[in-house]
Request: fold
Amino acid sequence: MALLIFYHIVLIITTIRSIIILKKKKNKNNLYIYLIVTFLVEVLAIVLQEVLNVENTDFIYKIYGIFHIIFFGYYYMKEFPLNMQIFTKIVMFLSLIIIFFFSKLFSNVLDDRMITVIGFFGVTLSFEWLFVKLNSPDEKKIYEDTYFWITTGLLFWSGFFILRQLPRFFFIEKDGGFSQIMRTFFYLVNIVTYSLYYISFKFYGKDNE
Reply:
């Protein structure tokens, strides 16, 4: 419970910081939108579980997963050359097709296809950005780029999302204790991810120099 509370605190601080920095400068970097939606989703899940006694809130995270793919798809495309933008659109389109037509979108649980697609899309975007960045001449050090920290966070989260989510149904049925450990560990993953997003704001001004 303490770790969950700490995760929410980190999310709130990061969201507020993003609004102050990104919205104030009115730049193309719209990460604050993603963070606000994430915060609202977490609040809604808490209200449904704690106030309305709704046991399963996976349907919220299904909608959030679709938003996650669309947001980061367009978020990164503006940083890519035309050929990479086309590739990203194709991957995003195929990802959404799989979710809408080949996953259990209207069931009460996140199925393995949707989990895999969300994680795979995040990993793909991260490697795309790294490929473009490493093949583009730039006087700045890579860690001085806002997108480096966001990409690191996205890659970290996407990889552990797949590792945590795919076996969760087996371990819930066979080993509830291990499932709880994995859930707790993923809170740490979330904390690290949003901390990396927070660090990215330190270099935000340098993107415009």
Observations:
- The chain has one domain: 2-208.
- The CA atoms of residues 65 and 99 lie 10 Å apart.
- The helical segments are 2-25, 31-51, 58-77, 82-102, 112-134, 146-165, 168-174, 176-200.
